[in-house]
Amino acid sequence: MLQRPVELAEYTSDHFRACVSELGLRQSCGRTGSCFDNVTAESFWALLKEEIGTRVWPDRTTARAEVFDFIETFYNRRRLRKHKVLGYLTPAETRQRHQHDLAA
Prior knowledge:
This protein has a domain of 59 residues. 58% of the residues lie in helices and 0% in strands. It is built from 5 helices and no strands.
């Protein structure tokens, strides 16, 4: 029988939860079979692959710089959120608006 390399039970065990708590972290574990658990991460990776593609860089430093540039320039500053409720703002503009509203 084949098993997944990391079993869900490892992330829901009392020992693991105690370790997470000791580190001052908050555990996030969604329901089994919920397609919304990873939707944000999956969307980000899909957009990253679409924009900069999958290729081999000459070194790790160059790869990191290009991914950082994508996140800062395109993902945070130019990409519009496709939600009318958010006013079609970029993530950076949405964050600024939220921080302004909190300060008021």
